[in-house]
Amino acid sequence: MDPLVAAVDQGTSSTRFLVFNARTAELISHHQVEINQSFPKEGWVEEDPKEIMQSVYECMERTCEKLGQLNIDLSNIKAVGVTNQRETTLVWDKETGEPLYNAIEGPVILPASSLDSAGPSVWLDLRTQSTVERLINKAPGRNKNHLKHKTGLPISTYFSAVKLRWLLDNVEEVQQAVLSQRAMFGTVDSWIIWCLTGGRNGGVHCTDVSNASRTMLFNIHTMDWDPELCRYFDIPMEILPKVRTSSEIYGWMVSPDNLQIKLLCVFACCLGDQSAALVGQMCFKDGQAKNTYGTGCFLLRNTGTKPVMSDHGLLTTVAYKMGKDQPPCYALEGSVAIAGAVVRWLKDNMGIVQSTSEIEKLAAAAGSSYGCYFVPAFSGLYAPYWEPSARGIICGLTQFTNRNHLAFAALEAVCFQTREILDAMKQDSGIPLKQLQVDGGMTSNRLLMQLQADILCIPVVCPTMSETTALGAAMAAGAAEGVEVWSLSPDNIPNVTSETYHPQINTDESEFRFARWKKAVQKAMNWETTEPCCNTNGTQPHTYSHHESQ
Q: Residue ranges of the Carbohydrate kinase FGGY C-terminal domain (predicted)?
């Protein structure tokens, strides 16, 4: 039997455990468990760290049962890697092994039904807004990019340091544990690795460079925690995990007593989810890029061994470091807030489609938007505009426009937003993109993928095996020194089958459509301004009711 490598893939809404063949990259077996999010107050998003671990154990157990049914010996699993939602923040007690508070979420997508505002949006845990304002006020010139030269990031509610600061300021159990030197901080990867390598009985407290680079406490040049950054946020350095590379043996897996199935293998990889997808898409060369299409989109572009600072509001992040003797690789990152969410908006809010799969049929029936453009800036525009006052707009309507054209315009909007970010990456890095690797739920929409190729004027490559994030973690674990069952050298990388979409329209037409899109974006700008409303006495505008229309 070929050697196998497993990956724990811990996301915001579910946990999965997947087992791959290290020679062929084939997915052998997997199991998934949904995770509950809690919203204790408006704008607060949390998860129970113990439920996260319970879901990890359940996924491991079920996957191993399935392997047993396939007559596969578990001793063939040589290593496990972990990939995780980045930025989600936890503090736990190293003596009792108990979490001291719920995990505070990174960026989360909420369903439309749980938001008062129209439609789903990328929902950040907003409790840290006042913390962020206080930190920005400390910066010279109140500049939110004051720490960017060290971190690659703006001071924002997004990153772990401000959530950790909030926990230290507001949760007495965390304050007490820090004073008595019992507190451990980590992102989800650190919590999982600590628990699975023994927990309070010698568990390994570590993270990797890709996750550390999203905390705002990590210097992306020295590749370690930065004392000056820790002082800025007033974070005690002794609670931080040890920073390791993304691919090395961290320790042996210790199965808890309540697990029927015992896995005897090493923990050998840790990668933030977007970095893992970059590795799973084999984007190892400077200039290669991937886009993950979910409710939003995440674009990462490998910039090689030098960090590139963006002039267009993109983030500079550490992509990975594949072993102690390897140099770190950096990436530029940009995200589209509303991608799949626009389809859900058409379904849940407007009733234009009955199911998310129906949008492809409607758009194909139209074959074009016939001059209709849809800018889904439901909660402002993100990279590269960073314009919070923008709002959604549909323009270019004629009496000929119907719901099919609107469906087409919605798909085009995802592609145009992706192009905006790739254009910004090109300007920052100076290198044009030759092709785009894609993954995520929306890639099953073939029309969308063809539109993306047409709008970018380059080929779009979609692997047939959709689990690229988990694959990336498995590859890095299997390639670690001392495991070495998976080769990452270009000559030996397993040949993953994929489908390539080539541009089918000429460049002039593509540029014309993109110019029209940019015109529509300008019309969406500066909508939510603070000029006085017509009703100057500050009352709400009148809402017309049913009886007034009779």
A: 290-480
Q: How confident is the model at residue 259 (pLDDT cuts 50, 70, 90)?
A: confident
User: Does 529 score more than 80 pLDDT?
Assistant: no
Q: Which two tokens stand for residue 531?
A: 């000029």
Residue 412 has pLDDT above 80, yes or no: yes
SS in 3 state form for 151-165? HCCCCCCCCHHHHHH
Q: What angle do CA 39, 45, 51 make, to 5 degrees?
A: 85
| Start-end of H helices in 17-159 | 49-69, 129-138, 148-151
More confident residue, 164 or 44: 164
Is residue 200 a contact partner of residue 96, using CB atoms and an 8 Å limit?
Answer: yes
Residues of the chain above pLDDT 90, percent: 73
Compute CA distances 386 → 40, 44, 284, 330, 391, whole Å: 29, 23, 29, 23, 12
Separation of alpha carbons 316 and 92, rounded Å = 29
Give the separation between CA 44 and CA 240, rounded to whole angstroms. 24
Residue 115 binned pLDDT confidence (cut-offs 50, 70, 90)? very low
Let me know: does 360 contact 343? Beta carbons within 8 Å: no
pLDDT score of 119: 34
- Percent share of the chain, pLDDT over 70: 93
Half-sphere exposure of 139 (CA within 13 A, CB side): 19
Tell whether omega for the bond before 154 is within 30 degrees of 0, i.e. cis. no
Largest CA distance in the chain: 79
Q: Angle, to 10 degrees, between the axis of helix 403-429 and the axis of helix 507-524? A: 100
Cα separation, 468 vs 476, in Å, equals: 12
For residue 200, is it left (φ>0), alpha (ψ between -120 and 50) or beta? Answer: alpha
Is residue 408 within 8 Å of 149, Cβ to Cβ? no
